[in-house]
Design goal:
A hairpin with a 2-residue loop joins strand 2 and strand 3. The chain has a twelve-stranded antiparallel β-barrel with strand order 1-4-5-6-8-9-10-11-12-13-14-15. It starts with a helix and ends with a strand. With about 325 residues, the protein is mainly β. It has a single domain, classed as Nucleoside-specific channel-forming protein, Tsx-like (Outer membrane phospholipase (ompla), Chain C), CATH 2.40.230. It has three helices and 15 strands. Helices cover about 10% and strands about 40% of the residues. It is globular and about 55 Å long.
């Protein structure tokens, strides 16, 4: 077994053990269903742009075999993915849909982006299954990320990722979530990637809110680490880093507003190495292997994002 295979096996075993521990420890908690659950679930670093938050939460009664369809569309002041901007800190628009039959689902999102390879947009398609164990809801799926419209001279950055997530609710207001993702070829760089995240959400009391409005405070922290890129890209690993976010989400019927702060621990020099930001500027710390020109990027810096979307079910 290779070092990479061993690392993946160890992380998967740890994630499975953690999920079973959550199920055992929180078995008496009430399951996640209903309107409050759709508001209070913390985001764990899924792509999809401004409409991604509208994905319905898993429901424990989905095993009955009912068909459900949902769609959403929105805009945001920025598109932040695991702490880094996908839009050069510019506004974005997006849309999403999901079709579910029982525990199984298929989904798709479209979003505008501004990336070094100049694609016309981002399309994410995927699917999976959402089983429940006691009061814990799981989401086991995969997503393929496509970036059409890139010039022939630009290398493709299409790739796929497998994801696993577990959510539960403790008491009447606290949501707890954990997730793990793995890709064998992150952004077509040749490097494997792994991502682990943990999040909390707290539903705000309805008696302090206007009529028909629900709200929640949510936050999450995640860690990304990577294998070596291909020899053509230097053969070194992409920089590992922490990212975190915290904010508040308001919902009134089909209308949703999210106000959120994002940040990472990436230096400006490592941010350039990770993103390839074409607007990076010189003047940073030189690294003869990863950044010989000492270029610095602001694509991983602290950012406040306002996001609005309409969700239809």
């Amino acid at each position: 077994m290779s070092d990479v295979d061993g690392a993946v096996s160890n992380v998967l075993a740890t994630a499975a053990a953690a999920a079973l521990w959550i199920a055992a420890y929180c078995g008496a908690a009430r399951g996640q269903t209903g309107e409050a659950n759709a508001v209070g679930l913390p985001g764990l670093g899924a792509r999809g742009g401004p409409a991604a938050e509208a994905r319905p939460a898993p429901k424990q009664d989905d095993a009955a075999g009912t068909f459900e369809f949902s769609a959403s569309a929105g805009f945001a002041s920025d598109y932040i993915y695991r702490g880094t901007t996908m839009s050069d800190h510019k506004p974005v628009v997006g849309a999403a849909f999901e079709a579910a039959f029982g525990q199984f689902y298929a989904s798709g999102t479209m979003a505008s982006v501004n990336l070094p390879t100049h694609p016309s947009g981002e399309i994410a398609v995927g699917g999976g299954v959402r089983p429940s164990l006691g009061s814990v809801d799981f989401d086991l799926g995969w997503t393929t990320y496509l970036y059409p419209g890139q010039p022939p001279s630009s290398p493709s950055i299409d790739y796929w990722e497998a994801l696993a997530r577990a959510d539960t609710k403790i008491g009447e207001a606290l949501h707890v979530a954990g997730g793990f993702a793995y890709s064998p070829n992150y952004s077509n760089t040749g490097a494997w990637s792994m991502y682990a995240a943990f999040g909390l959400g707290i539903d705000l009391p309805r008696n302090i809110l206007p009529p028909k409005v629900t709200a929640s405070l949510t936050g999450a922290v995640g860690y990304s680490w990577f294998g070596n890129q291909s020899a053509e890209l230097g053969g070194f690993p992409l920089p590992a880093y922490l990212n975190w976010h915290a904010g508040v989400t308001f919902t009134r019927q089909v209308l949703n507003l999210d106000l959120r702060y994002y940040d990472t621990n990436l230096s400006k020099e490592d941010c350039f190495v990770f993103t390839g930001d074409p607007t990076a500027v010189p003047g940073g710390r030189l690294n003869p292997v990863t950044n010989p020109d000492g270029l610095m990027s602001g694509w991983c810096s602290a950012t406040f994002v306002a996001k609005f979307w309409i969700a239809l079910q």
